[in-house]
What does this fold into?
Amino acid sequence: SPANLNSFEEQLISFEKSEDGTHVSLVSKYDIPFITTIRYTTDGSLPTKDSEVYTEPVNIEKQDRAGTVIRAAVFRGSKSAKVYTKTFFSGDSVLKDGIYTVCISTDTDNLYSDEKGILVLGAPTQEEANANENIPYDERTRNRANYFGRGIEWERPANVEIYSSDNEEII
It folds into this structure.
């Protein structure tokens, strides 16, 4: 028996879509006593010890968006192993004949937080905030905006999936 969750090399959780395409089941590959809880999210955020506990198939039929990103992890107390991510499409989805769909999933803070978001200007420094109030915020910060960040400290973890137009996962 492994000493901890991270000692598994194999995938702990798999995703199974119902035949009618409206629900997704999260299946643990192992029936081991120390695996206590599967927790998940449907908004792209990483599951935490406070995330929804998986007890029944997840409904993906009535989502307000074309695809639903399910992120799940096995928790032992407040600690988790690897996070598993999969995007599901329901109804009249974005999948079109001859066109590949690329899904990139990451925690919202990685994109939009003032401190570490890579798609935003970022918060002004105190000096910038106290500078000329008549200069627009983006003019004061444009030379050091977050999206100009380079190097390993600006890399963010993400999950990438590519689907063919017939809903076959390629990557």
Observations:
- Helices lie at 108-112, 126-130, 137-141.
